[in-house]
Specification:
The complex is a heterodimer of chains A (340) and B (327). With 340 residues, chain A is an alpha+beta fold. Helix content of chain A is 28%, strand content 21%. Chain B has 327 residues and is of the alpha+beta class.
Chain lengths: 340, 327
């Protein structure tokens, strides 16, 4: 059902949803930017409509809401283990189409990658509903159209925010609320962005060869990338994690096991017993990430992992552009170009 | 020609080597000015000077080759420049009041530099308003971070902008980027313990590098900015030396108050038989403890502040410390 609400009316709707849900949206975290006197836009819990930041892209993706940066899987004491309880109040995330498509990628990794589903992911993921934010302009670094992730249809509700008018379409009946019954009903279908400033061409996955891996293109990134890992931590689809066993007693029989985000650009990611490291050079890490995002994932799940949100471009302190990298990759694969 | 030398110097003109020629000195607190005023400086240099401009060590401009009798005319002309700098002096057509306390200089600071922990020009202008005009010989500079690009350690008062890093363990991925950086580049204040970062508050100098390096925002800045105040550094002939830390984790208000009180301290203790006595030598003469007690008197200190119990300045005296021999 479609509705047209004033800002006040929509805020009323948010208040009524809040009784049943925790609501997350991009918010302004004042003075929490890394540079002095700067703010950061990040996903956070909102109290009211005004808390939502719609004019900028969030620095971090919404994945941390249900895939926490650090998560205790269980506590152990000698022979017993206990899984910690989580907050079971359902969650609503206000999300743009690219990110919503990104979450399908996360679902593929955690829930459809082999026979076992990830219990810890699933129990949080099941609590989540999505209200999509119509996104017609995008931002400078976005390339969702090239990645076919500009259109998302698996939302539970969708909004269009205009000057003092919010159009709302509710798909999931659970997101109906009393305030809507007194609201003007309208036909509302979201539109989608048709063109970004940035465009990429993904090379044909069948043409990628060993030569692609050995191409000099990656050497440039060895000299430029500083392996800080921001591209990984800001990415909506990066889902790698590592395990930490924390010992709380001297005999190590009491403690906790937790999982923590890991990133392929970060030192230690591919460390092996004996001190070996598969990808010592930063260019090799860039290659590994690139091939996962626009090649390997596709072979398994029939869609590319990267959704073109452009956050990795936004956050890179060395101004490395992933979209530029994809286009270079296309040149070496499709045109046989060699970068020096 | 008759020139009242003292009046001229107090008006920011200097006696130059060239007889009958002076040089206009324009101080720029915090070292930042609107570009349009460069044209004004240019026109003074072309019309009244020898067409050249010297950029001074304390972030000012010096326009040489000016006739003494043009001072009045020039002062009227540079009035808009003085006004634009927001100096809290009575703006008149009579130019800069000067000498004694030197231009409050600053690095470019947090307006531009990623390492900057605060807006250094803003602080410079605030201090300028507090202390100007003053005859006492003080050198004050503000640097945006402990890299100390402005060389706060060569000043009587060097203000180093810092932040107290805040650690949110729930956002930490144990990547150790902060620890590695702090160990290699800073003071080694960070270490890993069971996948968590521990910060040694005695070693931490508040540079904020851990915040810059963190890929998840586990490290953020403190709400209040803090400052390390290093004091009584100097160049000069008798005993050049580096400034030493007097207080750390001080607030801006405390720093301003300390500087104010130091002017009163100097007024009480300066050797009036000398043409001028430099603050560092006064502190040497009366002792750090007296200085400390007097300048801290009646100041409401913030709870985070730490103050040096003793200070041992080193530096060197030419005769004593230099074992030179003819080769």
């Amino acid at each position: 059902m479609g509705y047209k609400l004033s800002n006040t009316g929509f805020n009323e709707y948010i208040q009524q949803l809040k009784e049943r849900y925790r609501l997350f949206a991009p918010v302004l975290e004042s003075k929490k930017g890394k540079f002095a006197q700067t703010d950061v836009i990040a996903y956070g819990e909102i109290e009211k409509f005004d808390d939502m930041i719609l004019e900028s892209k969030s620095y971090y993706s919404p994945k941390e809401i249900f895939f926490p940066i650090r998560e205790t899987l269980f506590y152990f004491m000698k022979d017993t283990i206990e899984t910690p309880k989580i907050n079971e109040k359902p969650v609503i995330i206000f999300i743009r189409p690219c990110d919503l498509n990104g979450i399908r990628r996360l679902d593929s990794i955690f829930l459809k990658n082999g026979e076992e589903v990830d219990f810890y992911y699933l129990r949080r993921r099941e609590l989540v509903k999505f209200i999509m934010i119509e996104c017609l302009e995008g931002f400078d670094t976005c390339f969702c159209v090239s990645m076919n992730s500009n259109i998302a249809l698996d939302y539970d509700a969708v909004i269009r925010v205009e000057e003092n008018v919010v159009s709302l379409k509710v798909v999931d009946d659970k997101l109906e609320a009393p305030v809507l019954s007194n609201t003007d009903k309208v036909e509302f279908e979201p539109e989608f962005i048709k063109e970004n400033k940035v465009k990429v061409t993904i090379p044909n996955v069948d043409l990628v060869s060993k030569e692609t891996f050995n191409n000099d293109i990656w050497k440039e990134y060895t000299s430029r990338c500083i392996a800080c890992g921001r591209c990984n931590t800001s990415c909506i689809t990066c889902s790698c994690y590592t395990m930490q066993d924390v010992k709380l007693s001297d005999d190590k029989s009491i403690g906790e096991r937790r999982r923590v985000w890991a990133g392929c650009h970060v030192d230690g990611f591919s460390d092996m017993a004996g001190g070996h490291n598969f990808r010592d050079k930063n260019g090799e890490r860039m290659r590994y990430k690139t091939m996962h995002k626009v090649n390997d994932f596709y072979k398994r799940f029939d869609e590319h992992m990267c959704v073109g949100c452009g956050r990795c471009d936004d956050v890179c302190p060395e101004y490395i552009s992933f979209s530029k990298c994809i286009n270079k990759l296309n040149e070496i694969v499709e045109e046989g170009k060699n970068y020096d | 020609m008759s020139v009242n030398r003292k009046v001229v110097t107090k008006n920011a003109y200097r006696i130059s080597k060239k007889r009958n020629k002076t040089a206009l000195r324009i101080r720029v607190p915090g070292g930042h000015l609107e570009a349009e005023y460069l044209t004004l400086i240019q026109s003074v240099a072309n019309e009244y000077g020898d067409g050249s401009v010297h950029i001074t060590t304390r972030q000012g401009f010096e326009v040489p080759g000016i006739d003494f009798d043009k001072i009045g005319e020039i002062n009227k002309k540079i009035r808009p420049l003085i006004e634009s700098l927001g100096l809290d002096i009575e703006v008149t057509d009579y130019g800069y009041p000067a000498a004694g306390t030197r231009n409050i200089s600053a690095c470019i600071g947090a307006e531009v530099c990623p390492y900057g922990n605060d807006n250094t020009t803003r602080i410079a202008k605030r201090i300028e308003k507090t202390v100007y005009p003053n005859n006492f010989h003080f050198k004050i500079a503000i640097t945006g971070c402990p890299n100390d690009c402005i060389k706060a350690h060569m000043q009587d008062f060097g203000i180093i902008c810092t932040t107290e890093p805040q650690y949110d363990v729930s956002r930490c991925i144990s990547c150790e980027a902060c620890v590695t950086n702090c160990t290699k580049k800073v003071t080694g204040a960070l270490s890993m313990n069971e996948f968590n970062v521990e910060r040694d508050t005695d070693k931490c100098i508040g540079c904020g590098e851990c915040i810059l390096k963190c890929p998840t925002g586990a490290w953020t800045r403190s709400e209040t900015n803090f400052y390390r105040l290093v004091i009584m550094g100097r160049t000069g002939k008798r005993n050049p030396r580096i400034a030493m830390p007097f207080m750390k984790w001080a607030t801006e208000d405390v720093i301003i108050q300390v500087i104010k009180n130091t002017y009163d301290f100097v007024d009480r203790h300066i050797d009036k038989t000398l043409a001028k006595e430099h603050i560092g030598y006064i502190v040497d003469r009366v002792g750090y403890q007296v200085f400390k007690d007097e300048v801290l008197e009646s100041i409401e200190l913030n709870k985070e502040i730490e103050i040096a119990e003793h200070i041992q300045w080193n530096g060197y005296y030419y005769k004593q410390d230099n074992q030179f021999r003819k080769q």
